[in-house]
Amino acid sequence: MRKSQQRTAIFEELGKLKSHPRGDELYDIVRQRLPRISLGTVYRNLELLRQRGMVLELPCGDFNRYDGKISPHHHFLCRQCRRLWDFNPDIAPGESKPIKNTADFQIESQFTVFYGLCRQCLAKT
Amino acid sequence: MRKSQQRTAIFEELGKLKSHPRGDELYDIVRQRLPRISLGTVYRNLELLRQRGMVLELPCGDFNRYDGKISPHHHFLCRQCRRLWDFNPDIAPGESKPIKNTADFQIESQFTVFYGLCRQCLAKT
DNA sequence: TTTGATGCAAAGTATTTGCAATCGG
DNA sequence: CCGATTGCAAATACTTTGCATCAAA
């Protein structure tokens, strides 16, 4: 994989974010740094970086959102506003339990999504 | 909410599935029962049923896939073929641990996604 | 010089929406 | 009858792709 300004910018800008953007959302951000970058380049590079394990697709069935943090962490999803946050409860469930393979599935990792209401949406109720 | 043939069919067909379809995928299935149903009707009803809590969006940040099962269960996601399966390991991690709220988040439930390779994709390696 | 990477634009896929017609209570 | 719901089609949103050009090694 060659170096390119574009790929570097995509990787670095994603790493700075706490949100989990789609390709087009990251495009808007990276464009502030490289105004002439194209949307296709962003999508192509995200897929490339994903294959190399340099960024994570959200490992929850949503293949179109990316996470620049490789280290394990959990997420909180607000059912009202649907924002997704990084979230590390004091007790991370499951982490202490052994991962068990079955005949059908070879498990490499596991991720927990907490689901409920964020503070703002709670206040509106 | 009034009754309609269409809504009933959408709800019932989704309930029969073990997969977690998008709107257009469910449309193909429901159409075998109601050939004249329209795609827009399927999307509109899924959103309606979701708001009433009658179906679940996949509580993992993927708002475009639906699950007809309300009772808690886990999922396995194959990183290669990207199929998503219902999955209940013998030890469901986290279930025995208390759910703890924080100042920012009111947690209503939690879901674990196991991530790795399914049997078929493993065989190809 | 060679080939991977890019910009651009067109095509493809998934979802939402406006509106007149229809159906259920 | 009245308003919720529908079918249809057009519009929107997001992603992928073909191709000529550019740039890294």
Would you mind describing this structure in some detail?
2 copies of one chain form a homodimer. By secondary structure, the first copy, chain A, is an alpha+beta fold. Chain A has 2 domains: 5-67, Winged helix-like DNA-binding domain superfamily/Winged helix DNA-binding domain (Arc Repressor Mutant, subunit A, Orthogonal Bundle); 74-124, 2-Layer Sandwich (Dna Ligase, domain 1). Helix content of chain A is 31%, strand content 26%. Chain A is built from 4 helices and 5 strands, in the order αααβββββα. In chain A, the strands form 2 sheets. A 3-stranded mixed beta sheet of chain A has the order 4-3-5. In chain A, helix 1 crosses helix 2, helix 1 (5-16) crosses helix 3 (39-51) and helix 2 (23-30) crosses helix 3 (39-51). The longest helix of chain A is centred in the middle third of the chain and has 13 residues, at 39-51. The first copy, chain A, is flat. In chain A, 31% of the residues are buried. Residues 93-98 of chain A have low confidence and may be disordered. Strand 5 of chain A pairs antiparallel with strand 5 of chain B. The structure holds a DNA duplex (25 and 25 nucleotides).
Key terms:
4 helices, 2 domains, Arc Repressor Mutant, subunit A, Dna Ligase, domain 1, homodimer, 125 residues, alpha+beta, DNA-binding, three-stranded mixed sheet, flat
Quick recap:
2 copies of one chain form a homodimer. Chain A is α+β, with helices and mostly antiparallel strands.
Write the layout of secondary structure elements.
The structure is a homodimer of 125-residue chains.
Chain A lengths: L4 H12 L6 H8 L8 H13 L4 E3 L3 E6 L6 E5 L5 E4 L17 E14 H6 L1
Parallel strand pairs in A: 3-5
Antiparallel strand pairs in A: 1-2, 3-4
Helix pairs in contact in A: 1-2, 1-3, 2-3
The structure holds a DNA duplex (25 and 25 nucleotides).
